[in-house]
Design brief:
Layout: H1 2-16, E1 19-24, E2 28-33, H2 34-40, H3 43-46, H4 68-89, H5 97-109, H6 119-127, H7 139-154, H8 160-171, H9 196-209, H10 217-220, E3 224-227, E4 230-234, H11 238-256, H12 259-279, H13 288-291, H14 298-303, H15 311-321, E5 327-334, H16 347-351, E6 362-370, E7 384-385, E8 408-416, H17 422-436, E9 442-444, H18 450-454
Parallel strand pairs: 4-7
Antiparallel strand pairs: 1-2, 3-4, 5-8, 5-9, 6-8
Helix pairs in contact: 2-5, 4-5, 4-9, 5-8, 6-12, 7-8, 9-11, 12-15
Length: 483
Protein backbone atom coordinates (compact mmCIF):
# COMPACT_ATOMS: atom_id res chain seq x y z
CA UNK A 1 0.00 0.00 0.00
CA UNK A 2 0.97 3.66 -0.31
CA UNK A 3 1.32 4.00 3.48
CA UNK A 4 3.60 0.97 3.76
CA UNK A 5 5.71 2.28 0.87
CA UNK A 6 6.07 5.68 2.58
CA UNK A 7 7.03 4.01 5.86
CA UNK A 8 9.68 1.95 4.11
CA UNK A 9 10.94 5.11 2.40
CA UNK A 10 11.30 6.81 5.76
CA UNK A 11 13.23 3.86 7.22
CA UNK A 12 15.54 3.73 4.18
CA UNK A 13 16.24 7.46 4.23
CA UNK A 14 16.95 7.37 7.98
CA UNK A 15 19.44 4.54 7.44
CA UNK A 16 21.15 6.43 4.61
CA UNK A 17 21.29 9.67 6.61
CA UNK A 18 24.34 8.35 8.47
CA UNK A 19 27.17 9.46 6.26
CA UNK A 20 30.68 10.84 6.00
CA UNK A 21 32.15 13.49 3.75
CA UNK A 22 35.27 12.90 1.69
CA UNK A 23 37.23 15.63 -0.06
CA UNK A 24 38.10 14.84 -3.65
CA UNK A 25 40.31 16.90 -6.02
CA UNK A 26 37.77 16.50 -8.86
CA UNK A 27 34.35 16.65 -7.18
CA UNK A 28 35.11 18.48 -3.94
CA UNK A 29 33.15 17.26 -0.91
CA UNK A 30 31.47 13.93 -1.58
CA UNK A 31 28.86 12.54 0.80
CA UNK A 32 29.13 8.79 1.32
CA UNK A 33 26.09 7.28 3.06
CA UNK A 34 26.42 4.44 5.53
CA UNK A 35 25.43 1.82 2.94
CA UNK A 36 28.50 2.76 0.88
CA UNK A 37 30.83 3.06 3.87
CA UNK A 38 30.04 -0.54 4.79
CA UNK A 39 31.35 -1.60 1.36
CA UNK A 40 34.29 0.81 1.34
CA UNK A 41 35.58 -0.42 4.71
CA UNK A 42 36.23 -3.98 3.50
CA UNK A 43 39.47 -5.67 2.39
CA UNK A 44 37.99 -6.33 -1.05
CA UNK A 45 37.33 -2.65 -1.74
CA UNK A 46 40.41 -1.29 0.03
CA UNK A 47 42.47 -3.42 -2.37
CA UNK A 48 41.68 -0.83 -5.06
CA UNK A 49 44.08 1.56 -3.30
CA UNK A 50 46.84 -0.63 -4.76
CA UNK A 51 45.62 -0.80 -8.37
CA UNK A 52 46.64 2.11 -10.58
CA UNK A 53 43.80 3.65 -12.55
CA UNK A 54 45.99 4.22 -15.62
CA UNK A 55 48.26 1.20 -15.32
CA UNK A 56 51.41 1.60 -17.39
CA UNK A 57 50.46 5.16 -18.36
CA UNK A 58 51.86 6.24 -14.98
CA UNK A 59 55.32 5.35 -16.32
CA UNK A 60 54.86 7.97 -19.05
CA UNK A 61 52.69 10.60 -17.33
CA UNK A 62 54.04 10.93 -13.75
CA UNK A 63 50.90 12.73 -12.58
CA UNK A 64 48.76 9.69 -13.37
CA UNK A 65 49.38 8.15 -9.96
CA UNK A 66 45.72 7.87 -8.93
CA UNK A 67 44.06 4.55 -8.25
CA UNK A 68 40.83 2.68 -8.92
CA UNK A 69 39.86 3.49 -5.33
CA UNK A 70 39.39 7.23 -5.97
CA UNK A 71 37.71 6.62 -9.31
CA UNK A 72 35.11 4.29 -7.78
CA UNK A 73 34.34 6.82 -5.05
CA UNK A 74 33.86 9.51 -7.71
CA UNK A 75 31.55 7.33 -9.83
CA UNK A 76 29.53 6.48 -6.71
CA UNK A 77 29.20 10.18 -5.87
CA UNK A 78 27.93 11.08 -9.36
CA UNK A 79 25.55 8.11 -9.51
CA UNK A 80 24.10 9.16 -6.17
CA UNK A 81 23.57 12.72 -7.39
CA UNK A 82 21.65 11.49 -10.43
CA UNK A 83 19.59 9.07 -8.35
CA UNK A 84 18.71 11.72 -5.78
CA UNK A 85 17.85 14.25 -8.48
CA UNK A 86 15.54 11.90 -10.38
CA UNK A 87 13.81 10.87 -7.15
CA UNK A 88 13.27 14.48 -6.06
CA UNK A 89 12.46 16.10 -9.43
CA UNK A 90 10.26 13.35 -10.90
CA UNK A 91 8.16 11.96 -8.05
CA UNK A 92 5.81 10.34 -10.56
CA UNK A 93 8.51 7.73 -11.21
CA UNK A 94 8.30 6.57 -7.58
CA UNK A 95 12.07 6.11 -7.26
CA UNK A 96 12.71 4.69 -3.80
CA UNK A 97 15.58 5.26 -1.41
CA UNK A 98 16.41 1.58 -1.97
CA UNK A 99 16.77 2.21 -5.73
CA UNK A 100 19.23 5.05 -5.11
CA UNK A 101 21.12 2.98 -2.54
CA UNK A 102 21.58 0.06 -4.95
CA UNK A 103 22.59 2.46 -7.72
CA UNK A 104 25.29 3.94 -5.49
CA UNK A 105 26.65 0.51 -4.55
CA UNK A 106 26.72 -0.59 -8.19
CA UNK A 107 28.74 2.50 -9.07
CA UNK A 108 31.03 1.92 -6.10
CA UNK A 109 31.71 -1.72 -7.03
CA UNK A 110 31.79 -1.48 -10.83
CA UNK A 111 35.62 -1.80 -10.96
CA UNK A 112 36.19 -4.28 -8.13
CA UNK A 113 37.31 -6.84 -10.69
CA UNK A 114 40.23 -4.92 -12.19
CA UNK A 115 43.52 -6.78 -11.88
CA UNK A 116 47.09 -5.48 -11.53
CA UNK A 117 47.71 -2.44 -13.75
CA UNK A 118 44.00 -2.40 -14.69
CA UNK A 119 43.40 -3.02 -18.42
CA UNK A 120 46.87 -4.51 -18.89
CA UNK A 121 45.77 -7.46 -16.79
CA UNK A 122 42.55 -7.94 -18.75
CA UNK A 123 44.49 -8.08 -22.03
CA UNK A 124 46.96 -10.55 -20.55
CA UNK A 125 44.17 -12.70 -19.12
CA UNK A 126 42.39 -12.89 -22.50
CA UNK A 127 45.49 -13.71 -24.55
CA UNK A 128 48.22 -15.35 -22.50
CA UNK A 129 46.86 -16.73 -19.23
CA UNK A 130 46.40 -20.44 -18.64
CA UNK A 131 42.85 -20.02 -17.36
CA UNK A 132 40.07 -22.05 -19.00
CA UNK A 133 37.89 -20.04 -21.37
CA UNK A 134 40.37 -17.18 -21.08
CA UNK A 135 39.00 -15.32 -24.13
CA UNK A 136 35.77 -14.61 -22.25
CA UNK A 137 37.32 -13.48 -18.97
CA UNK A 138 36.08 -10.00 -18.13
CA UNK A 139 36.84 -7.65 -15.25
CA UNK A 140 33.17 -6.67 -14.96
CA UNK A 141 32.15 -10.30 -14.44
CA UNK A 142 34.86 -10.56 -11.78
CA UNK A 143 33.45 -7.39 -10.20
CA UNK A 144 30.11 -9.19 -9.87
CA UNK A 145 31.76 -12.22 -8.26
CA UNK A 146 33.74 -10.05 -5.86
CA UNK A 147 30.54 -8.20 -4.92
CA UNK A 148 29.04 -11.47 -3.67
CA UNK A 149 32.25 -12.33 -1.82
CA UNK A 150 32.35 -8.88 -0.23
CA UNK A 151 28.74 -9.08 0.94
CA UNK A 152 29.12 -12.61 2.33
CA UNK A 153 32.45 -12.12 4.10
CA UNK A 154 31.57 -8.77 5.65
CA UNK A 155 27.92 -9.33 6.55
CA UNK A 156 26.66 -6.45 4.45
CA UNK A 157 22.90 -5.95 4.54
CA UNK A 158 22.01 -6.92 0.96
CA UNK A 159 19.76 -9.81 0.02
CA UNK A 160 20.18 -11.95 -3.11
CA UNK A 161 17.64 -9.90 -5.06
CA UNK A 162 19.60 -6.73 -4.28
CA UNK A 163 22.88 -8.37 -5.28
CA UNK A 164 21.51 -9.61 -8.60
CA UNK A 165 20.13 -6.16 -9.41
CA UNK A 166 23.48 -4.51 -8.61
CA UNK A 167 25.26 -7.07 -10.79
CA UNK A 168 22.92 -6.27 -13.68
CA UNK A 169 23.66 -2.56 -13.25
CA UNK A 170 27.41 -3.26 -13.34
CA UNK A 171 27.10 -5.32 -16.53
CA UNK A 172 24.68 -2.84 -18.10
CA UNK A 173 22.32 -5.60 -19.23
CA UNK A 174 19.03 -6.12 -17.35
CA UNK A 175 18.25 -9.82 -17.05
CA UNK A 176 14.73 -9.10 -15.79
CA UNK A 177 12.05 -6.50 -16.37
CA UNK A 178 12.74 -3.63 -13.98
CA UNK A 179 10.38 -0.72 -13.43
CA UNK A 180 13.30 1.72 -13.16
CA UNK A 181 14.95 0.92 -16.49
CA UNK A 182 16.64 4.34 -16.61
CA UNK A 183 19.02 3.16 -13.89
CA UNK A 184 20.85 1.09 -16.52
CA UNK A 185 21.89 4.35 -18.21
CA UNK A 186 23.80 5.58 -15.16
CA UNK A 187 26.79 3.32 -14.39
CA UNK A 188 27.29 1.23 -17.53
CA UNK A 189 25.24 2.63 -20.39
CA UNK A 190 25.26 0.00 -23.14
CA UNK A 191 22.63 1.97 -25.08
CA UNK A 192 24.74 5.00 -26.04
CA UNK A 193 27.80 5.09 -23.76
CA UNK A 194 26.91 8.21 -21.73
CA UNK A 195 27.43 7.28 -18.09
CA UNK A 196 29.00 8.51 -14.87
CA UNK A 197 31.94 6.13 -15.29
CA UNK A 198 33.07 8.22 -18.27
CA UNK A 199 32.17 11.47 -16.53
CA UNK A 200 34.59 10.64 -13.73
CA UNK A 201 37.51 9.09 -15.60
CA UNK A 202 37.56 11.77 -18.30
CA UNK A 203 37.64 14.51 -15.66
CA UNK A 204 39.96 12.69 -13.24
CA UNK A 205 42.49 11.36 -15.75
CA UNK A 206 42.72 14.72 -17.55
CA UNK A 207 43.18 16.58 -14.28
CA UNK A 208 45.82 14.22 -12.91
CA UNK A 209 47.99 14.00 -16.01
CA UNK A 210 47.69 17.69 -16.88
CA UNK A 211 45.71 17.62 -20.14
CA UNK A 212 43.08 20.30 -20.76
CA UNK A 213 39.58 18.86 -20.61
CA UNK A 214 37.02 20.57 -22.87
CA UNK A 215 34.13 18.42 -21.61
CA UNK A 216 32.07 19.78 -18.70
CA UNK A 217 30.04 16.89 -17.31
CA UNK A 218 28.29 19.24 -14.87
CA UNK A 219 26.29 20.71 -17.77
CA UNK A 220 24.93 17.32 -18.78
CA UNK A 221 24.08 16.61 -15.15
CA UNK A 222 21.92 19.74 -15.07
CA UNK A 223 20.04 19.22 -18.34
CA UNK A 224 18.53 15.75 -18.29
CA UNK A 225 15.32 13.99 -17.33
CA UNK A 226 13.88 10.48 -17.51
CA UNK A 227 11.41 9.87 -20.34
CA UNK A 228 10.12 6.41 -21.26
CA UNK A 229 12.56 4.77 -18.81
CA UNK A 230 15.55 6.39 -20.52
CA UNK A 231 17.77 9.29 -19.53
CA UNK A 232 17.29 12.03 -22.13
CA UNK A 233 19.10 15.36 -22.53
CA UNK A 234 17.92 18.82 -23.49
CA UNK A 235 18.64 19.17 -27.21
CA UNK A 236 20.86 22.23 -26.77
CA UNK A 237 23.35 19.92 -24.99
CA UNK A 238 24.03 17.83 -28.10
CA UNK A 239 27.40 19.57 -28.47
CA UNK A 240 28.29 18.67 -24.88
CA UNK A 241 27.53 15.06 -25.75
CA UNK A 242 29.79 15.19 -28.81
CA UNK A 243 32.45 16.88 -26.70
CA UNK A 244 32.37 13.97 -24.24
CA UNK A 245 32.94 11.38 -26.95
CA UNK A 246 35.64 13.50 -28.57
CA UNK A 247 37.44 13.97 -25.25
CA UNK A 248 37.27 10.24 -24.64
CA UNK A 249 38.82 9.67 -28.07
CA UNK A 250 41.52 12.27 -27.29
CA UNK A 251 42.49 10.47 -24.09
CA UNK A 252 42.70 7.14 -25.89
CA UNK A 253 44.71 8.67 -28.71
CA UNK A 254 47.15 10.76 -26.67
CA UNK A 255 47.31 8.95 -23.35
CA UNK A 256 45.92 5.42 -23.02
CA UNK A 257 47.37 4.31 -26.40
CA UNK A 258 50.60 6.30 -26.14
CA UNK A 259 53.31 4.32 -27.92
CA UNK A 260 55.56 4.15 -24.85
CA UNK A 261 52.63 3.20 -22.60
CA UNK A 262 51.74 0.36 -24.96
CA UNK A 263 55.35 -0.80 -25.06
CA UNK A 264 55.32 -1.00 -21.25
CA UNK A 265 51.94 -2.78 -21.43
CA UNK A 266 53.58 -5.51 -23.48
CA UNK A 267 56.52 -5.71 -21.08
CA UNK A 268 54.22 -6.10 -18.09
CA UNK A 269 52.24 -8.73 -19.97
CA UNK A 270 55.43 -10.66 -20.71
CA UNK A 271 56.44 -10.40 -17.05
CA UNK A 272 53.11 -11.98 -16.04
CA UNK A 273 53.50 -14.70 -18.69
CA UNK A 274 57.02 -15.57 -17.52
CA UNK A 275 55.98 -15.61 -13.85
CA UNK A 276 52.67 -17.41 -14.27
CA UNK A 277 53.97 -21.00 -14.36
CA UNK A 278 55.61 -20.47 -10.96
CA UNK A 279 53.21 -18.02 -9.24
CA UNK A 280 50.11 -19.61 -10.76
CA UNK A 281 48.51 -16.22 -11.39
CA UNK A 282 46.00 -17.78 -13.77
CA UNK A 283 44.30 -19.63 -10.93
CA UNK A 284 43.08 -16.29 -9.56
CA UNK A 285 41.01 -15.71 -12.70
CA UNK A 286 38.51 -18.33 -11.58
CA UNK A 287 38.78 -17.81 -7.83
CA UNK A 288 37.57 -14.45 -6.43
CA UNK A 289 39.06 -15.25 -3.01
CA UNK A 290 42.49 -15.40 -4.64
CA UNK A 291 41.85 -12.61 -7.10
CA UNK A 292 41.25 -9.87 -4.56
CA UNK A 293 44.77 -10.46 -3.18
CA UNK A 294 46.25 -9.56 -6.57
CA UNK A 295 47.42 -5.95 -6.85
CA UNK A 296 50.13 -3.96 -8.63
CA UNK A 297 52.38 -5.23 -5.83
CA UNK A 298 52.85 -8.45 -7.78
CA UNK A 299 55.64 -6.64 -9.64
CA UNK A 300 57.49 -6.26 -6.33
CA UNK A 301 56.87 -9.92 -5.50
CA UNK A 302 58.64 -10.86 -8.73
CA UNK A 303 61.34 -8.19 -8.51
CA UNK A 304 62.45 -9.06 -4.97
CA UNK A 305 62.10 -12.81 -5.24
CA UNK A 306 65.29 -14.90 -5.19
CA UNK A 307 63.64 -17.87 -6.88
CA UNK A 308 65.56 -19.07 -9.97
CA UNK A 309 62.23 -19.86 -11.66
CA UNK A 310 61.50 -16.13 -11.74
CA UNK A 311 64.88 -15.05 -13.12
CA UNK A 312 63.61 -14.32 -16.64
CA UNK A 313 60.70 -12.29 -15.25
CA UNK A 314 63.08 -10.43 -12.92
CA UNK A 315 65.34 -9.56 -15.83
CA UNK A 316 62.42 -8.04 -17.67
CA UNK A 317 61.37 -6.03 -14.59
CA UNK A 318 64.98 -4.78 -14.38
CA UNK A 319 64.72 -3.59 -17.98
CA UNK A 320 61.55 -1.72 -17.01
CA UNK A 321 63.25 -0.11 -14.01
CA UNK A 322 66.27 0.96 -16.07
CA UNK A 323 64.12 2.22 -18.97
CA UNK A 324 65.39 -0.36 -21.45
CA UNK A 325 61.94 -0.59 -22.93
CA UNK A 326 60.36 -2.29 -25.88
CA UNK A 327 60.14 0.22 -28.71
CA UNK A 328 57.61 1.01 -31.39
CA UNK A 329 59.34 0.62 -34.74
CA UNK A 330 56.55 1.75 -37.07
CA UNK A 331 52.91 2.82 -37.17
CA UNK A 332 50.51 3.16 -40.07
CA UNK A 333 46.86 4.22 -40.20
CA UNK A 334 44.61 2.04 -42.34
CA UNK A 335 42.39 3.80 -44.90
CA UNK A 336 38.70 2.90 -44.62
CA UNK A 337 38.70 1.20 -48.01
CA UNK A 338 41.17 -1.44 -46.74
CA UNK A 339 39.27 -2.45 -43.62
CA UNK A 340 37.06 -5.05 -45.25
CA UNK A 341 39.64 -7.01 -47.23
CA UNK A 342 43.01 -6.50 -45.53
CA UNK A 343 43.58 -9.47 -43.19
CA UNK A 344 45.25 -8.98 -39.83
CA UNK A 345 48.99 -9.11 -40.26
CA UNK A 346 50.92 -11.40 -37.92
CA UNK A 347 54.40 -11.25 -36.41
CA UNK A 348 55.40 -14.21 -38.58
CA UNK A 349 54.41 -12.40 -41.78
CA UNK A 350 56.42 -9.31 -40.88
CA UNK A 351 59.49 -11.24 -39.70
CA UNK A 352 59.57 -13.39 -42.83
CA UNK A 353 60.28 -10.30 -44.92
CA UNK A 354 63.79 -9.84 -43.46
CA UNK A 355 66.20 -12.79 -43.03
CA UNK A 356 67.27 -13.36 -39.44
CA UNK A 357 64.43 -11.42 -37.82
CA UNK A 358 62.56 -13.55 -35.31
CA UNK A 359 58.76 -13.22 -34.93
CA UNK A 360 59.29 -13.70 -31.18
CA UNK A 361 61.02 -10.31 -31.12
CA UNK A 362 58.04 -8.52 -32.70
CA UNK A 363 54.60 -7.48 -31.48
CA UNK A 364 51.96 -6.38 -33.97
CA UNK A 365 49.25 -4.19 -32.47
CA UNK A 366 45.97 -3.71 -34.33
CA UNK A 367 44.83 -0.47 -32.75
CA UNK A 368 41.14 0.49 -32.88
CA UNK A 369 40.01 3.90 -31.64
CA UNK A 370 36.41 5.03 -31.74
CA UNK A 371 33.65 7.07 -30.07
CA UNK A 372 32.75 4.04 -27.87
CA UNK A 373 30.43 2.26 -30.33
CA UNK A 374 32.87 1.09 -33.02
CA UNK A 375 32.02 2.61 -36.42
CA UNK A 376 28.60 3.93 -35.33
CA UNK A 377 27.81 7.43 -34.17
CA UNK A 378 26.79 6.97 -30.52
CA UNK A 379 24.73 10.18 -30.57
CA UNK A 380 22.28 8.44 -32.91
CA UNK A 381 21.24 6.40 -29.86
CA UNK A 382 20.82 9.40 -27.56
CA UNK A 383 17.35 10.82 -27.06
CA UNK A 384 16.72 14.52 -26.50
CA UNK A 385 13.82 16.78 -25.53
CA UNK A 386 12.92 20.34 -26.56
CA UNK A 387 11.69 22.02 -23.40
CA UNK A 388 11.94 21.13 -19.69
CA UNK A 389 8.17 20.62 -19.52
CA UNK A 390 7.95 18.24 -22.47
CA UNK A 391 7.00 14.59 -22.02
CA UNK A 392 8.28 13.38 -25.40
CA UNK A 393 11.79 12.62 -26.60
CA UNK A 394 13.38 12.34 -30.03
CA UNK A 395 16.69 11.73 -31.75
CA UNK A 396 18.58 14.43 -33.62
CA UNK A 397 19.62 14.39 -37.25
CA UNK A 398 22.99 15.74 -38.34
CA UNK A 399 23.43 18.92 -36.30
CA UNK A 400 26.56 20.35 -37.91
CA UNK A 401 28.65 19.90 -41.04
CA UNK A 402 31.71 19.77 -38.81
CA UNK A 403 30.63 16.59 -37.00
CA UNK A 404 32.88 13.73 -38.21
CA UNK A 405 31.56 11.32 -40.81
CA UNK A 406 33.62 8.41 -39.49
CA UNK A 407 33.68 7.39 -35.84
CA UNK A 408 36.41 4.77 -35.87
CA UNK A 409 40.04 4.60 -36.94
CA UNK A 410 42.36 1.63 -37.26
CA UNK A 411 46.12 1.49 -37.24
CA UNK A 412 48.89 -1.08 -37.34
CA UNK A 413 51.83 -0.72 -34.98
CA UNK A 414 55.02 -2.75 -34.92
CA UNK A 415 56.82 -3.06 -31.59
CA UNK A 416 60.27 -4.53 -31.10
CA UNK A 417 61.38 -6.24 -27.89
CA UNK A 418 65.06 -5.74 -28.67
CA UNK A 419 65.80 -2.07 -29.50
CA UNK A 420 68.76 -3.18 -31.61
CA UNK A 421 66.32 -4.75 -34.06
CA UNK A 422 64.18 -1.69 -34.72
CA UNK A 423 65.86 -0.92 -38.05
CA UNK A 424 65.29 -4.49 -39.22
CA UNK A 425 61.66 -4.35 -38.08
CA UNK A 426 61.07 -1.16 -40.06
CA UNK A 427 62.59 -2.71 -43.16
CA UNK A 428 60.42 -5.78 -42.69
CA UNK A 429 57.26 -3.66 -42.39
CA UNK A 430 58.15 -1.74 -45.57
CA UNK A 431 58.91 -5.02 -47.35
CA UNK A 432 55.57 -6.49 -46.21
CA UNK A 433 53.75 -3.52 -47.75
CA UNK A 434 55.55 -4.01 -51.07
CA UNK A 435 54.87 -7.74 -50.95
CA UNK A 436 51.13 -7.31 -50.34
CA UNK A 437 50.75 -4.32 -52.64
CA UNK A 438 49.59 -2.11 -49.80
CA UNK A 439 50.90 1.42 -49.44
CA UNK A 440 50.41 2.91 -46.00
CA UNK A 441 51.68 6.27 -44.70
CA UNK A 442 53.97 4.79 -42.04
CA UNK A 443 55.53 6.65 -39.11
CA UNK A 444 58.92 5.28 -38.14
CA UNK A 445 60.76 5.67 -34.84
CA UNK A 446 63.29 8.39 -35.58
CA UNK A 447 65.53 7.73 -32.57
CA UNK A 448 67.55 4.90 -34.03
CA UNK A 449 71.30 4.73 -34.40
CA UNK A 450 72.90 3.47 -37.60
CA UNK A 451 74.38 0.55 -35.71
CA UNK A 452 70.99 -0.39 -34.30
CA UNK A 453 69.38 -0.25 -37.73
CA UNK A 454 72.00 -2.56 -39.18
CA UNK A 455 72.00 -4.98 -36.28
CA UNK A 456 69.86 -8.09 -36.40
CA UNK A 457 70.24 -9.71 -33.01
CA UNK A 458 67.65 -11.36 -30.84
CA UNK A 459 66.92 -10.85 -27.16
CA UNK A 460 63.78 -12.84 -26.57
CA UNK A 461 63.23 -14.12 -23.02
CA UNK A 462 62.20 -17.74 -22.84
CA UNK A 463 59.32 -18.91 -20.72
CA UNK A 464 60.63 -21.08 -17.89
CA UNK A 465 59.26 -24.57 -17.49
CA UNK A 466 56.98 -25.22 -14.57
CA UNK A 467 58.96 -26.26 -11.54
CA UNK A 468 58.12 -29.62 -9.99
CA UNK A 469 58.50 -28.05 -6.54
CA UNK A 470 55.56 -26.52 -4.69
CA UNK A 471 54.30 -23.32 -6.30
CA UNK A 472 55.33 -20.09 -4.64
CA UNK A 473 52.17 -18.02 -4.23
CA UNK A 474 51.88 -14.20 -4.31
CA UNK A 475 48.59 -14.51 -2.39
CA UNK A 476 48.57 -14.33 1.42
CA UNK A 477 47.51 -17.70 2.90
CA UNK A 478 43.84 -18.12 3.64
CA UNK A 479 42.82 -19.09 7.19
CA UNK A 480 41.85 -22.56 5.95
CA UNK A 481 45.36 -23.23 4.64
CA UNK A 482 46.83 -22.54 8.07
CA UNK A 483 44.75 -25.21 9.79
Amino acid sequence: SAIAWQQQQARDMLRDSKSKFMNDPVHGLMRMPDCCLRVIDTPQFQRLRDVLQLGSTYYVFPGGSHHRFEHCLGVCHLAGKIGDNVRDSQPELEVSARDVRLLRIAALCHDLGHGPFSHVFQSWANQYSRAPDRENWDHEVMSCKLLELTVDENNIDLDREDIHFIQDLILGTPKSQYTQGWMFDVVHNSRNGIDVDKFDYIARDSFMIGINNAFDFERLMNYYKVLDSEICYEDKEVYSVYEMFHMRYTLFKRVYSHRVSKAIDYMLSDVLTLADPYLDISSALVDPAKFYRLTDGILNVIEFSSSPELQAARDLVHRLRTRQLYRMAAEAMLPHNLWSHLPKVSEEEIASCVPGLSPDDLIVQHLHLDYSMHARNPVDNVRFYDEPETLESHTLERVSLLIPEHFEERSIRIFCKNPDNIGAAQKAFDAWQRKTGVSLPAIHDKHISTAAAASITNMTPTTPRRSKSRLFSPFPPSPESLV
